[in-house]
Amino acid sequence: MGKGSIVKVQTFIGKVSIEGLHQMDQHINEWLRRTKVTPIHVSQSFGADRHHDGRSQEPIIVTSLWYEGGEEE
Description:
single chain, 73 residues, alpha+beta, 25% helix
């Protein structure tokens, strides 16, 4: 990290399935191309998201990507 750099985080959430992971990969890769940021650290965790009916849950993967650069807010 450069002196005075601001580290930010972007979080992606996807379904735990082959198709869901493929979609998440495409989304992350497109975001990286579009923003031209420098990734610093990536973490992943698993959880569950409650369906709209409130009675069942679906497994999800959460990917957090810490980065430098890109547009300033």
